[in-house]
Structure formats: C-alpha cells, structure tokens
Probable branched-chain-amino-acid aminotransferase
Amino acid sequence: RTAYVNGQYLPLEQAAVSVMDRGFLFADGIYEVSAVLGGRLVDNAGHLARLARSLAEIGISNPHPIEEWVRIETELVSRNGLDEGLVYMQVTRGAAERDFSFPKDAVPTVVAFTQAKTIRANPLAETGAKVVTVPDIRWQRRDIKSVALLAQVLAKQAAAEAGAAEAFMVEDGAITEGSSSTAFIVTREGTIVTRPLSNALLPGITRRAVIALAAEFGLTLEERLFSVEELHGAAEAFYTSASAFVMPVVSVDGETLGEGRPGPVARRLRELYFTFAE
Ligand code: PDD
C-alpha cells in the first residue's frame, strides 16, 4: 500500500512521522474521510470544505489548496488501485518540543492513505445494524473533526462488546450522533428526524446529502432533538457516514426496533444515496 506523508508517496511500512508530532502527543490535529466508489471520490468537495473549516477552527493554516488535496487523493486511489473504500487525510500542527501552546514555526504534518472496504455489498446493510446507547462524554466542539477520538473509541468498543455495530451517544436525554456517524430516526408517522447542527455534533457530509435527497424525493424530514425513548419507539432508525453511507438500524440496546429488519425509508434512502454517489 502506498501512503502520503508530507509531499512524498511511500510504501506504508516506510511512512512515518516524528514521536514529537503534536498529533501524537496532544491529538492536536484534524482529519477527514472521503469514500471511493467505482474508483471515484464521493461528495469530495464537501469533505475538503469541512477539512478547511476544521483547520481554521483550530488555527492551522491549510497546507494545500483544494486542487492539491484532490491531486493527492486521486494519486493515492490510482497508486493503490482502489475501487471501493476510503481515503483518510490528517493534518496536525507538526513536530515541536513538547509545550502546550502553539509552537512558533512548526510545519503541519500531512498524512493520507487509503483503505479498501466493501461499501455497496456490505452484508450489514442487508440484515441491519444493532446499536447501543452510551453517554456522550466528549468535549463541546464536536463540530470539529478532531483526531482526539478516545471517547468514540470507548463508545465503539462498548458497542462491539454488546455485539452491536455502532453506539449512539446521549447527552441530556437526547441523541447527539453515532460514534462515527450521524443518527436518524423515522417516526411512526413517517417523519425522518435528525438533530440540527450545532457544536454538539459533526456536520456530516452524508447527512447533508441525505437531507437534500429527502427534500428532492418528497420525504418529510425534521431537524430537531430526539430522545432515547423516541429512538426506542421509532418505526425505523438509521445512521449515515462516508464509510457506512446509509445504514439501517434494527435493534437498540438489545431491543428489537420496528419490524426488526431494515425499514422502507432507510432502504430507499440507501438506494437514493448510491445513485447520488455514482
Ligand atoms: N466518521 N459524526 C461523527 C462523530 C463522525 O466521526 C462521522 C464520520 C460522522 C459522519 O460524517 P460524514 O457523513 O461526513 O462521514 C458523524 C468518519 C467516517 C470516521 O471517523 O471514520
């Protein structure tokens, strides 16, 4: 596999950064993930715009103009012969003597690599995913795609230990989002509900596309908070991300949700999203 590190394409085994990198020492950096389908990047402009925003929010100047980011991604997809999977990009504040405040002249570290992954024929989408709810113990700037992911690592591990694929995180009784996805429910009246954007959650790029698709195809959608109880009593639930696209949920905290199989709204949105992504 070929990875990208600070301007160089290298075999993954030779790709390395300093132990003094602030990403490693402080999680002082941000990342982005774009999907690849049929060798092409999905909704990539949105991901690169969010990457630029995350950098601006933490005061790192964007090391590359958009066109250069696209070149790096395209080069990695091509060198790795990637047909379906993900491109991961990370920028940290760089390597410097360990000191909390920003170093004077650190140069941002840029790392990118690809991961092959079955997205379209994902068997989980056929059966539907189980989710568990966990307390959202993260900081208050979840709108930044920070590499500080320990809370999400623990949430996903709790899900795995319960035999579930995703953890929905809860704050003040309401779902914020999935540990690596945006959470949606479909009420018994057929309304799709997802939390409005704020500092409490990541502005999902897949979320935005799904909201646009719902509007285009005449599905009712509300952006509002929804509680754990509402989730348990929903007709359907699903989650969205660059890696899962639209993933139907069939069980919450060990209880069957709705009919216990992927619901019609989630299945329709998954199909619509694939058509959009192609
Ligand atoms: N995660 N919320 C969180 C906390 C996320 O980490 C992600 C994505 C999303 C969905 O965003 P998008 O639709 O733009 O992928 C929401 C990526 C895939 C990851 O960490 O691997």
